[in-house]
Write a structure and sequence with these properties.
The protein is of the alpha/beta class. Helices cover about 35% and strands about 20% of the residues. It contains five helices and seven strands. It has a seven-stranded mixed beta sheet, with helices on both faces. A hairpin with a 2-residue loop joins strand 3 and strand 4. The protein is globular, with a radius of gyration of 20 Å. The mean pLDDT is about 90.
Length: about 210
Amino acid sequence: HRLSFAYVWPDADDAFLRGVAHDMCFTSQLYCSSAQGVYVDLDPGDADALLRFGERFLTILEKEACTHPARLDALGRADVSLGLYADSLEAGLSGKGRVLRGEACSVTVCAESALMPARGFGNCWVKPLPREDILRVLRPHAGHLQTVALCCEKERRAQLERLLLAAGAARITDGARMSEGYCGMPRDGIYPLARYMKRVGVARETDV
């Protein structure tokens, strides 16, 4: 399974974040191209700024979650709820995070930057990842990276695109197009059909 995420600067505009939130809720974060969370170009020590961003994103995510509610049965809802409760306890005990709960969604604000799957179904994470740490944090997961929704200053975009591609990302797009497909899309960085084909060669004698 591939993992996708958004990478944004702290002043990312609401329209971009609405696109990310819509993708999360519309796909229930089940696609390989669905954002599991949002990396923010912040220093891990800037906890207040990260929390403010998490609260801001929760407001946007909540509106999308109410428009596109997760299709879960009672057992599925209980599983997600128990998982979030465990996350809340762990965050409280470690002091390294906080779970922000909204209606039919949540945002887990984490102080550490490790890439991981989210709870899904409108429950995501927000983590700090300064641009100088992109390769160190993401490169070990190169085989699992897929789509990145990128929002940054125009003058920094080319630099960040190079870093994210070098880290292993196969696609870079905007928030609203993360799960859109098109003919020839790189998706996982390979052409899967080649796996089901066999190349052969036949040498024939030259006619005398």
